[in-house]
Amino acid sequence: MERKIVEVVAAVIRDQDKIFATQRGYGEFKDGWEFPGGKIESGETPQQALIREIQEELDTEIEVGKLIDIVEYDYPTFHLKMHCFWAGIKKGDLILKEHEASKWLTKETIHSVEWLPADLGLIDRIEELL
Ligand SMILES: Nc1nc2c([nH]c(=O)n2[C@H]2C[C@H](O)[C@@H](COP(=O)(O)OP(=O)(O)OP(=O)(O)O)O2)c(=O)[nH]1
């Protein structure tokens, strides 16, 4: 059987030398750290999906910047294709509507949380860009 492809967008919200990470509050990956975002819905561009997801999850309006990378990762039950963009805050205070915790991380602290497996390669790249 063909493995299911899950197409996701994620925002690396940056403020100077810090990036914003969130901890999942429910589901299969509960307690893992990630970049906020979610699944692209049909008819949406990745940028539109990201603006919608961040509004829903964090009650914040973002400006979507450049694509950092498209991460491909094989989880046991699906293949993840994750479009990761730089983002900045336009309006709002990053209120956690779904996540259980959040942190601003720097180059020095970026490895201090337990990232989801698919994010590890990306984290090494971001570390160099901070
Ligand atoms: N948002 C996000 N998801 C990630 C990251 N790394 C990673 O493996 N994932 C995986 C976990 C999930 O299987 C999937 C994202 O789906 P989701 O459950 O957040 O999406 P959603 O909000 O649209 O989903 P749903 O609960 O409404 O079904 O991508 C990451 O850094 N950010």
From TrEMBL:
According to its UniProt entry, the protein's GO biological process terms are: DNA repair; DNA replication
Q: Which InterPro entries match?
A: MutT-like (IPR047127), Nudix_hydrolase (IPR020476), NUDIX_hydrolase-like_dom_sf (IPR015797), NUDIX_hydrolase_CS (IPR020084), NUDIX_hydrolase_dom (IPR000086)
What sequence ranges are listed for the domain Nudix hydrolase? 4-130
Known cofactor(s): Mg(2+)
The record's EC number reads 3.6.1.55
What keywords are assigned to this protein?
Answer: DNA damage, DNA repair, DNA replication, Hydrolase, Magnesium, Metal-binding, Mutator protein
CDD domains referenced in this protein's UniProt entry, alphabetically: NUDIX_MutT_NudA_like
Pfam families according to UniProt: NUDIX (PF00293)
Task: Name the chemical reaction catalysed here.
Answer: 8-oxo-dGTP + H2O = 8-oxo-dGMP + diphosphate + H(+)
Q: Which GO terms describe its molecular function?
A: 8-oxo-7,8-dihydrodeoxyguanosine triphosphate pyrophosphatase activity; 8-oxo-7,8-dihydroguanosine triphosphate pyrophosphatase activity; 8-oxo-dGDP phosphatase activity; 8-oxo-GDP phosphatase activity; metal ion binding
The Swiss-Prot or TrEMBL record describes its family as follows: Belongs to the Nudix hydrolase family.
This chain's protein is named 8-oxo-dGTP diphosphatase
Upper taxonomic classification of the species?
Bacteria, Bacillati, Bacillota, Erysipelotrichia, Erysipelotrichales
Q: Could you tell me the gene encoding this protein? A: nudG_2
